Amino acid sequence: MSTVDFVHLHVHSAFSFRESLLRVEDIVRAAKVCEMSAVAITDTNAMYGALSFYRLARAEGLAPILGMQVSLAVDEEEVVPGRAAESLDTVVVLAMGLSGYRRLTRLATSARWKRPVPHVTLRELAEYSDGLVVLCGGPESRLFDALARGEVEAAERRLLQVANAVPAGQLFVEVQDHGLRREREGLPSLMELARRYDLPLVATQDVRYLAREDAPWHRAYAQLARADAAERFATDEFHFATKAEMEDRFANLPEALGRTAEIAEMCALDLPLHQVRMPRYATKDGRPAEEVLREAARAGATRRYGAIAPEVEERLERELDVICRMGYADYFLVVADFIRYAHQQGISTGPGRGSAAGSLVAYALRITDVDPIRHKLLFERFLNPARVSLPDIDTDFEFERRGEVIRYVMEKYGRDRVAQIGTFGTLQARAALRDAGRMTGADPALADRLAKLVPGVVHASLDGAYQESAAFRELVDGSPDARRLFEAAKRIEDLPHHTSIHAAGVIISPEPIADWIPLDLAADDTPVTAYPMEDVEALGFVKMDFLGLKTLTLIDRCLESIRKRTGASIDWRQVDEGDKATYALLTRADTNGVFQLESAGMRRVLRELRPTSLDDVIAVISLNRPGPMENIPAFCDAKHGRRPVTYPHPDLEPILADTYGVIVYQEQIMQIASRMAGFSLAEADLLRRAVSKKKREILDEERARFVDGCVRRGYSEETAREVYDLIVRFADYGFNRSHAAAYAVLAFRTAYLRAHFLPDFLAALLTLSMGSPDKIRLYEQDARRHGIQVRPPSVLRSERGYTVEKDGSLRAGLISIRHVGEAAVDHILSLRSEKPFTSLVDFLRRIEPRIVNRKALDSLFAAGALDEFFPENASRDVRRQMYEEALSRAEESRQWAALDLFVEAEAQCASEGPGNARAPSAKRLYIRYRSRGGAQVLREIQRLLAMSPGETEVALYDASTGRARLLGPRYRVEVTQDLVAALEERVGLGNVRLK
Asked: Count of CB atoms within 10 A of residue 677's CB?
């Protein structure tokens, strides 16, 4: 049994991408098994897993030590791209308490901020080291390298550089022994150097995997990222060693082992989790946010409703009281501000998403565009004072302009206080198999074959593939190589592999984010959190979802097409919500491109339900899900009079009338509890959430409360129990009506456009579908089914995307053609706007071959984009011949033009030269030849020219090299028909020209 309280201070998790096989939960579990009081995480130049590790360790009663192994440069000149491992030092830094943690996150941000090679400088280490324990001298450090080479003075200089950057008592010299000869040879010198400068030793192990048997897999995996992995990790001693193993390994250095526990105490950390860091809205004149919000909400309600009715007044005040009491006034003002900016810039926003559509304050501030009173939406479903939770207003923006809104927020609140939320890509089953193939040196064809046998479902696992796919299982069981590949892949499956960016999440902070969360920098210079969403929220930062919604882009493009084609502008406030043509379209399920109603299941419900109102559309969106589907027949039968509408109790008719007696929405459950049991809506929301958990003790407890409340209000106990049973049955099925209502608005708008402006709608839909051949085929067939002709792309008429022609037909866009990129399309459109193309040769002559290359031209020809240049009745073969001839003529024209350019420039230079007063000749003979045909060609040209003295200047163009030159005065010739014929015979017809 170990007598030393050792803890691991140097542990790499899988967030040191391709350097470790350890998940953070593996580290915590191993420390528990080894009965360690604390354990550290020290990933390379990153803290991606730090907070997840912290939370797991604390939950298991362990003291988490947060740190990082950093690449250290004395100055930026030491950083050699491509040779970082050789050029940079390494040290381990550990956070001492809360102030140390905040310095560590700053250091982690510096390591990756605008640096292609992650590292920190010695100056930065000195700046942040006040709260950090620093471990130097490990086997990967430059200090150790110098000692291994016998360069004691260089090692001494390096040690002193680091020592001078770190406060006294916070620098330790790291000693390791993984059984490598290099370590054992260098360790005595390192210990001697530490003693010379009175620096304490600390025993560590560079932990990369859990158990010794993992060593071969780790070496193979690490070799995918670093060429020296086989040498660097040559032994099986990089596992999570027990206390006894470490005591045995460092029996002669017990003080170095015990020092790990001392350092763990120095690094005790208690992070303030779940303390809300609400963004602050800068109000004018420093007025309280609550006052500004109340004023803005009342003004907005007046704009929405005109005179404010008592019902609106009461609800507005109730919501404002809750929002202000919970401290969320700033949040609403911040969201309203960037929504207002979007509207000012003409950036479309969605009508709402999620439960936020149930807020009247949000509606008044134009954050949402769904009237919660008209649609019977409940604020308490969104924000409940009895259920403390952060507000969550998700906002949809026009897909292509979402980034503009995020940039505005960054400029307004500061780039150090706004960041997108990071995520991590993990090795899914197929990628793991292919990486495993490289790890094991397996036949790539075998790895590919296995990968293709993994079922094509989202997040399919290797074990799942083995269970579900007979072919996969037979291959694994029938081939030793496939079995080894399978086992290797399981070792690395789901390991984090790279960083990414959350599709929507953005945080706005009241203070610099890097004081709490390390930041990375995206390719477009956008700050990105190094922690994923769960960890960001655990630290109290408020996530806001900035979602890009293509449906808004579809609507915008359709409206723009309508304006251009007809001059009409559509104001959705003036559109009849009961438009018959729209509901007729929905009834026949003609819904290609209609938001949320395009799937086969939705079409089936539409045909059965035959919607006649927006409430019906809300119901369709809510019912077509597993569970609620069983109510579709009853709902449709009641709507169409095939069964009588019944209610659990007559008092519930006002609540259930819109859904024909069927409980469809969560809000209805809340209203029932309020109406019958006297619950407040806040209490009713808690009931809804509690009952949905289906836990027996909760169900019994809530039943008693509900029945007691009903009895007190005069209902029989039997009725109360029956209604409660209904609530229990539908609690899981109930859909969020607020969310469905907001989505129904977009469904109605897209259906309206399809019903009344089909060509414009399909043109916009096809443009958004470019890049998806299956969808293009589907929507083009849809157009033809409705008698709308789809014309091929044309360099004379097409725009980037699909457009509507004057006759109502659709014209395919140039960007829809494969191998014709955006740069080529923009170039063609730019040339056409300057001057229309008059012929195929004119088009081919004017384009820049470097932008529109031969492959792109061939694609334009194959797609029919050049057809208008050919005779209408010309066959495909004839067109191909004409195309090739035009290419040759255009090329020749470009070459002559280049010759003119070169020669004119040369003539000008010659005439401007000192002592040369010769004026350029009025006439010039151009001759094109190919030097690769032999030197005798040029000699023959010169002989012919010498025989014909005259006044015309001669210019030569070498088609082999692209070089042009003006011949000297003795080659001024008299041009005759015989001379031209002789020259053409030598260099080819068409290669002689007089200008």
From this structure: 25
Evaluate whether 261 touches 288 at the Cβ level (below 8 Å): no
Q: Where are the alpha helices (DSSP H) in 34-168?
A: 50-59, 84-87, 97-112, 122-128, 142-148, 152-165
Express each pLDDT in 62-74 by its tens digit: 999 999 999 998 8
Query: Which residue, 58, 69, 29, 31, is CA-closest to 246?
Result: 31
- What is d(CA 350, CA 340) in angstroms, rounded to the nearest whole number? 13
- Which residue do the tokens 């001298």 mark? 137
Q: What phi-psi label fits residue 587: left (phi over 0), alpha (psi between -120 and 50 degrees) or beta? A: alpha
Check residue 45 and give left, alpha or beta (phi > 0: left; psi -120 to 50: alpha).
left
DSSP 8-state symbol, 913: S
781, 654 Cβ separation under 8 angstroms: no
What would the pLDDT profile of 281-330 be if each residue is shown by its tens digit?
Answer: 988 788 999 999 999 999 999 999 998 999 999 999 999 999 999 999 99
pTM: 0.83
Please report, as a single letter, which amino acid is at residue 420: Q
Write phi, then psi, for 854 (nearest 5 degrees): -60, -35
With vertex at residue 427, the alpha carbon angle to CA 548 and CA 461, rounded to the nearest 5 degrees, is: 100
Contacts of 478 (CB under 8 A, 6+ apart): none
CA distance linking residue 236 with residue 216, whole number of Å: 8
* CA–CA dist 725, 800 (Å, integer): 58
Query: What mean pLDDT do residues 956-983 have?
Result: 79
- For 381-462, where are the E strands, in sequence order? 395-398, 418-426
Q: How far apart are CA 152 and CA 411, in angstroms?
A: 51
pLDDT digits (tens, 9 = 90+) for 763-778: 999 999 988 889 999 9
Closest CA to 750 of 544, 623, 632, 602: 602
In the block, tokens 């539409």 appear at: 606
354-379: per-residue pLDDT in tens? 899 999 999 999 999 999 999 999 99
Q: Report the DSSP beta bridge partners of residue 93.
A: 68, 134
For 236, the token pair is 């099986």
Q: Cα(477)–Cα(470) distance, rounded to whole angstroms? A: 10
* pLDDT 10s digits, 873-891: 888 888 898 888 888 877 7
Strands 790-791 and 992-994: unpaired
> Can you give the C-alpha Rg of the chain in angstroms?
37
Q: What is the DSSP letter of 817?
A: S
